[in-house]
Amino acid sequence: MATAYVSPDGSVTIPESIRVALGLENGGRVEFVSIMEGQVSLVAANLSPSVLKGFLHRPDVDCSVEEMIELGIKRAMMAKKW
After folding, report:
1. Are 13 and 24 in contact (CB under 8 A)?
2. What is the SS3 assignment for 33?
3. Is the distance from CB of 18 to CB of 42 less than 8 angstroms?
4. Could you tell me which of 70, 75, 29 has the C-alpha nearest to residue 56?
5. I want to staple 45 with a disulfide (CB 3.0 to 4.6 A). Which of 28, 29, 32, 65 is the partner?
6. In this structure, are residues 12 and 4 in contact, taking their beta carbons and an 8 Å threshold?
7. Are residues 21 and 47 in contact, defined by beta-carbon separation less than 8 angstroms?
């Protein structure tokens, strides 16, 4: 497991092993994806979105777009409570 320290201005140097694994070069971009409270994933922004396929848990329940929007609103409201 690679470890990095946060500087006083909030900067973090991504360890070399992680940069190599993500194919990041000087000036490369990364995105931070919130997984759950206390967990964030670092994703190279230079990768195709197809890399994320299967990254998130897919419930076994089919639902409509309207139901997904309603669920998203409910979860957003719950998230604001912490």
Report:
1. no
2. strand
3. yes
4. 75
5. 29
6. yes
7. no
SS3 2: coil
The residue type at 36: M
CA pair distance 80, 20, nearest whole angstrom: 36
Q: Where are the alpha helices (DSSP H) in the chain?
A: 16-22, 65-79
Both structure tokens of 38? 């206390």
Q: What 3-state class would DSSP assign to 57?
A: coil
Kindly calculate the radius of gyration of the chain based on its CA atoms and give it in whole angstroms: 17
Question: How is residue 79 annotated by DSSP?
Answer: H
Helix, strand, coil percentages (3-state) for the chain, rounded to 5, are 30, 20, 50
pTM: 0.51
Instruction: Give 14-69 pLDDT, tens digit per residue.
Output: 999 998 988 888 888 888 888 888 888 888 887 666 666 666 666 666 778 888 88
